[in-house]
Amino acid sequence: xxxxxxxxxxxxxxxxxxxxxxxxxxxxxxxxxxxxxxxxxxxxxxxxxxxxxxxxxxxxxxxxxxxxxxxxxxxxxxxxxxxxxxxxxxxxxxxxxxxxxxxxxxxxxxxxxxxxxxxxxxxxxxxxxxxxxxxxxxxxxxxxxxxxxxxxxxxxxxxxxxxxxxxxxxxxxxxxxxxxxxxx
Length: 184
What we know:
Elements: H1 3-15, H2 30-33, H3 48-51, H4 57-60, E1 62-65, E2 69-73, E3 83-87, H5 99-120, E4 124-128, E5 145-150, H6 158-162, H7 171-180
Antiparallel strand pairs: 1-2, 2-3, 3-5, 4-5
């Protein structure tokens, strides 16, 4: 019996009759779900987003610094060029930031899209904020907006079959290219 058939048999035995949903099993995501590299409390003392700006831009993977927010590459990117726009202020919800921060984050998101378009020519973008642990925020204590460049067919079988994500460029090289083409 093939391993897949065995897994399906066990699932049916313990969960009843299989429904019509297909499932993609991604056990490598358990490190993320389990909280690997997440702060243990919600204070700014352990918050990586509060400490990144203390580093120089290359070491912190900071692409651009604004007055109220900064753009930084994601250490666990969904795609090459995945960056985040992060307010300097340690707040957890969008409703907690003032209009000046909202405006700067919006402008920086537009600038990020322009830089990514110039450097990487994506076919589209995912832009969003996950707020709160239940809302899917990896670091719920500090608000951050994801800007993820997308290409047709960019999701492939590697992460599922090989537990590997093919990333064609080093984060440091991507940071340098994006920083150089950031619009002012």
